[in-house]
Amino acid sequence: MSLGSGERFDLVVIGGGVAGLCLAYEAARAGRRVVLLEREATLAARTSANWFRILHGGLRYLQSLDLVRHRESVLARREWLRDFPDLIEPLPCLMPLVGRGLKRPWAFRAAFALDAALARGRNRGLRPDRHLAAGRVLAAAELRRLLPPFDRPGLEGAALWEDAVARDAPALAAALAKRAQAAGAELRTGVTVAEILVEGGRVMGVRTADGARVLAAVVVNATGPWSDLTLAHLPSIRRRDLFRPSLAFNLVLDRPPPFDGALAVQASRPNAPILFVYPLNGRIFAGTWHAAWRDGPDQVEPPAAAIAAFIADLADAMPWLDLREDAVHAVHAGLLPVSRPGSTNLTGRPLIVDHGREGGPAGLHSIAAIKFTTAPMLARKILARIR
Fold this sequence. Notes:
This protein is α/β, with parallel strands linked by helices and about 375 residues long. The protein is built from eight helices and 19 strands. It is about 25% helix and about 30% strand.
């Protein structure tokens, strides 16, 4: 696709994942002339296409009493349910409580009470069929009725709550694009940005691979794992390792789903991660497994050992499914930012960098989301900074 030379906009967004799409929408809605440039032929084609599709309300943040992130997640989940009610629906989540750590009835009763107090408005403005029920603790006998095959020593009951799920990720991405275009944003796919144009210490726009110039006083780099590569030609950028990648992947398994909603499971080995499985087109969608990643961002394929470890944990937690590696129907993989190279500990907050404040060109910013759920909030935060 060819861009006319010297086109002028208020804002250029590089990258058409969920962060870029949400920013393009928010900027256009605020009256800015914005263009989004995506090198792939389709939008939301990489990490934003391979996420686990659950929009969490931040219940896990209560464990560390991170009330700010809990509140942000509750509001963000409500926003998704409000804005896309035909694509996002409530998802019951069931976690057996087997007396390990905080997986005990008393701990979840306290968490649900706090969640109810802090998230009183979780259903405000939502369609009645998109309302989320308050969490509650079930007795062991109730869990066995819901999940007859489950048998684990020390079973004390189960926690049951509701989050939201977007089962059709491509449809949601298409809806995000349609909304941004309706607000006035221009979305252009198949366009590679070759250079960010700088003059006199300020951003002037970008040059595409076909030589076209797209001019703007503000450029936002929303390329996720490609963030450093996008800026590699700018010697004045002091900050490196903007996006330290970690592998995150989910599996589609040829097995019947064990529960109508999402089931949280954990292998019996020490320090095993909590994994979720839920129905997707008659199969099991399982996630999310994290592994260190030291390769580039273009070819993201989980190593066989990581897939085997994932399957082994799921098989230990749900032995009645007879899970083996030949049950893998599809793998959904992407890269998420971590605090240090080689780690699997995700950064606590999304990346927002004003390069002008760090000795780089004024008007150049980089952003990276760590959660699909809070991408709209990230977009509004960066937009507030570039006004």
